[in-house]
Specification:
This protein is an alpha/beta fold and 222 residues long. Helices cover 39% and strands 22% of the residues. Strand 5, helix 5 (129-146) and strand 6 form a beta-alpha-beta unit.
Length: 222
């Protein structure tokens, strides 16, 4: 995994920061798309090239210009747990769609979308409104991205995210999968491996901690 240029939307997020470190350690160049100029120093310190751009305001042409020359793009942005339904739609759904539009315009095929357990499934009525809005946005993003013939997409649905140290032991398979948790660091490592191998194109994957090394789990996908 060397000398690739990987653009990460939501570059200051926790998974994105882990991914930047993994990519940088292997000789790749992470380009972090961030909205807040106060995050420039933080992502730079991790080894990323910061690009300040607001996915809720940018045009397709503006974003495509930033993506030019990339080998892959990763959608790791999110409105956050304290945001309302409107921002979950404009970031978690519309942001993912904008990145896909811009990637196609820039001629970049590889697209990894970080989604969530629960996406693509009926949402229980007894869940809180914030979670319902989040899953609705993620499902809509998945539907848009997975319908595109111009992208070599992979949709990754991690289970409950934790800040535990990486285990390098996962369960990674197409749906369905029993609920579980996974360290953010292992999610990042899986994404890096998927980009490196080019595996699981046009595939939706569920991810939790398990008993298989990340390299073996990705290789088994073919």
């Amino acid at each position: 995994m060397t000398d690739k240029r990987i653009v990460i939307a939501g570059g200051h997020g926790q998974i994105a920061q882990h991914l930047t470190q993994v990519l940088t350690a292997h000789g790749d160049r992470a380009v972090s798309l961030i909205r807040n100029t106060e995050h420039v120093d933080a992502v730079t310190a991790l080894g990323a090239l910061p690009q300040v751009i607001d996915l809720e305001a940018a045009s397709v042409d503006e974003l495509a210009e930033v993506l030019a020359g990339a080998d892959a793009v990763v959608f790791a942005a999110g409105a956050g747990p304290n945001s309302g339904p409107d921002r979950k739609d404009t970031v978690d759904r519309a942001g993912a769609v904008l990145l896909a539009d811009a990637a196609e315009k820039a001629g970049i095929r590889r697209y990894v979308l970080i989604s969530s357990f629960g996406a693509g499934e009926p949402v229980a009525e007894d869940l809180d409104d914030g979670w319902k809005a989040y899953i609705k946005a993620k499902t809509a993003a998945e539907e848009d991205v997975s319908a595109r013939s111009g992208l070599d997409w992979t949709i990754l649905r991690p289970g409950r995210l934790t800040d535990e140290d990486p285990l390098d032991a996962v369960s990674l398979t197409e749906p369905p999968m029993d609920a579980g948790s996974v360290p953010r660091a292992d999610v990042a490592a899986v994404i890096a491996q998927l980009i490196d191998t080019g595996g699981a194109v046009r595939t939706t994957l569920m991810l939790t901690s398990g008993s298989t090394s990340i390299a073996d789990a990705v290789d088994a996908l073919g």
